[in-house]
Amino acid sequence: MDYLKIKNLSSKTNDFSLDKITFDIQKNEYFVLLGQSGSGKTMLLETIAGLNQCEGEIFYKGEDISLLATEKRDIGFVYQDFALFPNLNVEENIRFSSKYKKVVDADTLFEDIVEFLKLDSLLDRDTKDLSGGEKQRVAIARAIFSRPKILLLDEPLSAIDPTFRNSIMKSLKDIHRRYDVTTIHVTHNFREASYLADKIAIIMDGKIQQVGKAEDVLNHPINIEVARFLGFKNIFPATMLGFSSSSKVFSVDPNVIKVSKNGTMEADYILEGVVEECMGIVDHYKLFVKVKQHQFFIKILKRDYEGCYADRTNIIQIGFDKKDISFI
């Protein structure tokens, strides 16, 4: 049985809609919702938490909770801006859930969370005096203290100094494991998703485009829109490679494409093109080569080539191997 199952979930606010969202999450999975700003990520979290009216079903361990009040869903929510209570100090923020529900082994849990998240020196502080990283830790501590069935994290690293991001990502994974919680994490950052996720769902314009194991989604996009969102380059019709299907497309990484001026290249696929531009960037060149009506983007290391292939209008060969192609 799925731990959490979202089935045909729809919701509307102003001029934006979530459209028949469906996916499932297993117990203790770290599930990442990946999408651009305005794609519906936060709205979906709020709908799962019961903050928006909706159609469709939300099942927790087989029980439909879609009509339950927010406070009865046992869901911990950490907002992007942390949403701490300004009239309460750090300890009072963390213990807030005990005002409306019985927290099992509350004192033991509190001491463990404080020690684990290194909050002991902050307990008497006003939240307005905290740094972004400190506020984040307090917000997560408050959510964990409520012993949620599911932890919802809305862009939890967006307000964090990039120099601390790696350590905080590790902390999130450790929290997920230590407190035996199933997590849904919203982000637009591919690196976050790759490091944290067991499973990823790509959301665009209120619709789930693709969902699956993190490695599968990030390396095998289901369509061109997802591929472009994930940063895939050089997306062209497979007819360029001799395939007959006009609907099939392929992508090849700019870093694996070889180039040659003298026709001595070895590769599974060799194409002839015209240099349109060459840009020197620190340790590499960015080449833009037109092959028929399509422009290839290529990166070549300066140390591997003498001089730039910058002579515009020069005809060169580009090549790549079958193993380096992703079909979409």
Automatic annotation (TrEMBL):
Alphabetical list of InterPro entries matching this protein: AAA+_ATPase, ABC_SmlMolc_Importer, ABC_transporter-like_ATP-bd, ABC_transporter-like_CS, P-loop_NTPase
Domain ABC transporter: from-to ranges: 1-230
ATP-binding is among the record's keywords: yes
SUPFAM superfamilies associated with the record: P-loop containing nucleoside triphosphate hydrolases
Pfam families xref list: ABC_tran
Superkingdom, taxonomy of origin: Bacteria
Keyword Transferase: no
GO MF, one annotated term: ATP hydrolysis activity
Family matches, as Gene3D superfamilies: P-loop containing nucleotide triphosphate hydrolases (3.40.50.300)
Keywords: ATP-binding, Nucleotide-binding, Transport
Entry-linked PROSITE patterns: ABC_TRANSPORTER_1, ABC_TRANSPORTER_2
Official protein name in the record: ABC-type sulfate/molybdate transport system, ATPase component
Species in which this protein is naturally found: Sulfurimonas gotlandica (strain DSM 19862 / JCM 16533 / GD1)
Gene field: modC
